[in-house]
Design goal:
single chain, alpha/beta, 8-stranded parallel sheet, two-stranded antiparallel sheet, 10 helices, globular
Length: 334
């Protein structure tokens, strides 16, 4: 698979990573055995960036990834770039959250993540969400101490503003910014992608398939009771109907191209920006294999322009999160 670099001094990783969140929470019932098979197949296919967070399943996701690493031994660990996050604090079974960026919390969260992952060092450690009460300079200073101590390798930020990125980068090099970015979530194009390119920072795109809506294979009216998309504004009511029309146009476009809608959506991200690394999440082997194949799909400049126009942000209905999901988000709400 193509390779891309995490920041000017960070590790080289696969151009497409794997988001692991859905293996533990938010998308209905989980199956650890199936998830472990998917993780193993990802490594076989050359995927090397694995993205998790301490809040996913309240530790379960990190523990699952830790189990996978342990079962494969040192040789498997050497093939993996492990990214995790801190900062979102939730209670069991609740979506509402508070944000904690205090130095004591960061250190405690880091130790807990190291233990669950079973690793000596975290390759990429993100501030998952920002607490504006804690100056970003103080936040990054704490993280830089963890770098010097060998507990983390690289620093990342998630859903921050351009100003926050620049202030953080002035204290210590930032390897990656992670934010939602896809055909139907274009907010990073309002300055963040340009700032990352200027500073030599990788941009990691989460939900690059619009939480599976862009696959063309999901029915928003048939979501499981535990699926958080049942409360996402883009997946309910008239917004869902309007967005489904856009996805149908994407499906028709992809069929003419001889590809799946997912592959087109991922190839669009990869070819628009050389520093973007999408991390589609899946628990299914077939979806994983299809996503990885998107790295080989070539789109021409006119085709990229057609897709830009098809998914003009003004045509997308609904906010990308319910109100509680915007806690700690500095970037454009969408």
């Amino acid at each position: 698979m193509q390779q891309r670099k995490l920041g000017a001094s960070g590790p080289v990783t696969s151009a497409i990573g794997l988001g692991c969140m859905g293996m533990s929470e938010f998308y209905g019932e989980s199956d650890d055995s199936a998830s472990l098979r998917t993780l193993a197949r990802a490594v076989e296919l050359g995927v090397s960036l694995f993205d998790t967070a301490d809040t996913y399943g309240l530790g379960h996701n990190e523990a699952l990834l830790g189990r996978f690493i342990a079962e494969g031994g040192p040789s498997r660990r050497q093939k993996m770039v492990v990214a995790t996050k801190f900062g979102i604090v939730r209670a069991q079974g609740q979506y509402e959250r508070r944000i904690d960026n205090s130095p004591a919390y960061i250190r405690s969260a880091c130790e807990d993540s190291l233990r669950r992952l079973g690793v000596d060092s975290i390759d990429l450690y993100y501030c998952h969400r920002r607490d504006p009460a804690v100056p970003v300079e103080e936040l990054v200073s704490t993280l830089s101490e963890l770098v010097r101590e060998g507990k983390i390798v690289s620093i990342g930020l998630s859903e921050v503003s351009v100003d926050t990125l620049r202030r953080a980068h002035a204290v210590h090099p930032v390897a990656a910014v992670q934010s939602e970015y896809s055909l139907w979530s274009r907010e990073p194009e309002q300055g963040m992608l340009q700032a990352c390119a200027e500073l030599g920072v990788a941009f990691v795109a989460y939900s690059p398939l619009g939480r599976a809506f862009l696959t063309g294979a999901m029915d928003a009216t048939q979501l499981e009771p535990g699926d958080f998309r049942r409360h996402n504004p883009r997946f309910v009511g008239e917004a869902a109907v309007q967005n489904q029309c856009l996805v149908q146009e994407l499906s028709d476009w992809a069929q003419r191209k001889g590809a799946s809608p997912s592959q087109v959506a991922l190839a669009w991200l990869l070819q628009k920006h050389g520093h973007v690394i999408p991390i589609p999440g899946t628990r299914r082997l077939s979806y994983l294999e299809s996503n990885v194949a998107a790295a080989d799909l070539v789109l021409s400049a006119p085709e990229l322009a057609q897709l830009d126009q098809l998914f003009d942000p003004a045509q997308v209905a609904g906010a990308r999160y319910p109100e509680a999901g915007f806690a700690g988000i500095e970037s454009q709400r969408g």
